[in-house]
Amino acid sequence: MLVILGAGYAGRFIYIQAIRDGVSVSVTSRTPEAHLNFAAPSHRLQFDLDREDTWRNIPADADLIWCFPAVSQKAVSAFAGNALGNARRIVVLGSTSAYKLPGTDPDSILDESASIDTTRARVVGEEHLRTHAHAIVLRVAGIYGPERNVLDWIRQGKVGPSQRHVNLIHVEDLAAICLLAIEKGQPGKAYNVSDGRPRRWSEICEEAQKRWGIVPLKDDLDQRPGKRLSIDNMTRDLRYRFQYPDLYQALETLESSTSGRPPASPTV
């Protein structure tokens, strides 16, 4: 039995993949009837970390995928101490924002041994779950996919052609990796999750203009260096084969799905 705690955007795709794989799965929300219409009614559970009376809705002896920020610390600790004792394996979706920005060398590559920012509440919660509940923490890069098109971020002026590095992961790859982490991940270990190809926003914007005629609305003045992440540990332990290893081919598919035209042939 698998339970997806807090099934938002990523959780929806994990649910879909689990159903395809023949996994018995339930999804949770604080208001399941309002937010879980993608799931069968019998698969919907009410769960609110801040309401202890809802904790009993989580079946005992289930695998858990935790999809929401692990805050507040008091609630996370209480839930870990009182309700996670019967869980089998736990995967927590964290964020690469857990890592501190690199120092003097902006091109340095960060693995899971890099310093994390323990002033951030969600990082403290994730680490509590990793060390006390033996959770597998996935430090996830920027998620894109259907309804979250990187090209729309450029069109809308949310990002521009800065020299900042960005790491990305297609949501369908993330969903498959979460399920694989339940099966093969090492309890109490953290894994970086991205497509393994850090890029600069300037490169992505240049390709967006060249391939799709998308001109950035403005220069991005954000001078932070960003991060370049290593996924060597995930590659070694999970042995995952990416469905979307090429960002630009994935974006072509997203563009085609919204425009109704067939995808162009990949550029050689």
Strand/helix succession? EHEHEEHEEHEEHEEHEEHEHH
Report the count of strand segments.
Answer: 13
Under the CATH scheme, which architecture would be assigned?
3-Layer(aba) Sandwich
Helix proportion range: 25-40%
Roughly what is the average pLDDT, rounded to an integer?
92
What does this molecule look like?
- This protein is an alpha/beta fold and 268 residues long.
- It has a single domain, classed as NAD(P)-binding Rossmann-like Domain (Rossmann fold), CATH 3.40.50.
- Helices cover 34% and strands 17% of the residues.
- The strands form 4 sheets. It has a 7-stranded parallel sheet with strand order 3-2-1-4-5-7-11, with helices on both faces. Strands 6-13 form a two-stranded parallel sheet. It has a two-stranded parallel ribbon with strand order 8-10.
- Strand 4, helix 3 and strand 5 form a beta-alpha-beta unit.
- The radius of gyration is 19 Å and the shape is globular.
- The termini are far apart.
- The C terminus is likely disordered.
Short key terms for the protein model shown above:
268 residues, globular, Rossmann fold
In short:
The protein is α/β, with parallel strands linked by helices and 268 residues long.
Topology:
Layout lengths: L1 E4 L3 H12 L4 E5 L2 H4 L8 E3 L16 E4 L6 H10 L7 E6 L13 E2 L10 H12 L3 E5 L1 E3 L5 H6 L9 E2 L1 E3 H14 L5 E4 L5 E2 H12 L15 E2 L2 H7 L8 H13 L9
Parallel strand pairs: 1-2, 1-4, 2-3, 4-5, 5-7, 6-13, 7-11, 8-10
Antiparallel strand pairs: 9-12
Helix pairs in contact: 1-6, 3-4
